[in-house]
Amino acid sequence: MNVLDLAMFNPNGIVEIDLRASTPEALHTGLSKHFTELLTMHSNLQNKLYDCGEAMKHVKGLWLNQLINGMLPKLSLNNKLGQAEIVKNKFTYGIKRVTSLRDPYAKNLLDKYTQFLSRTGNSHDFADY
């Protein structure tokens, strides 16, 4: 799910990463570190995919593509959302952020979430059932 953070680093909101890109400027230290981690993860994955392709050059039929596609990250377990594709050093997940919440809506949502977390917990006794 870390991959969804790529929408934050892309001004268009597209969930993709270019492996030749440098860390975006004016990022908080934590976000800069997170971008570097995502870049490293995708670079390592690209190297593994290349090694796998080289090792399996003699595989015939659709097996090679199926094996390589199985190594690509997915955003959902049922393969209906965000299957990664790699084209020329760029991983793209086929989804995009359409909007982001700004104040006062972001503050309102955060307040409601904080209230939910700080709610009073009731004691449960399941022994009676």
Could you characterize the architecture of this molecule?
This protein has four helices and three strands; from the N terminus they run H-E-H-H-E-E-H. The longest helix is centred in the N-terminal third of the chain and has 27 residues, at 29-55. It is extended, with a radius of gyration of 20 Å. The chain has one domain. 9% of the residues are buried. It has helices spanning 6-9, 29-55, 63-71, 105-117, and strands at residues 14-18, 85-87, 90-96. A three-stranded antiparallel sheet has the order 1-3-2. The protein is an alpha+beta fold and 129 residues long. The two termini are 37 Å apart. Helices cover 41% and strands 12% of the residues.
Sheet with most strands:
3 strands, antiparallel
Mean pLDDT comes to 80
Spans of at least 5 consecutive residues whose pLDDT stays below 50 are none
Strand order of the largest sheet: 1-3-2
Question: What global shape is seen?
Answer: extended
Enumerate how many helices there are, as a single number: 4
What's the total number of strands? 3
Q: What is the helix/strand order? A: HEHHEEH
Beta percentage is: 5-15%
Structure class: alpha+beta
Classify the helix fraction into a percent range: 40-55%
Query: In the residues, how many domains can be counted?
Result: 1
- Rounded Rg: 20 Å
Distance between the termini: 37 Å
SSE topology:
Layout lengths: L5 H4 L4 E5 L10 H27 L7 H9 L13 E3 L2 E7 L8 H13 L12
In short:
With 129 residues, this protein is α+β, with helices and mostly antiparallel strands.
Q: How would you describe this structure in keywords?
A:
129 residues; three-stranded antiparallel sheet; extended
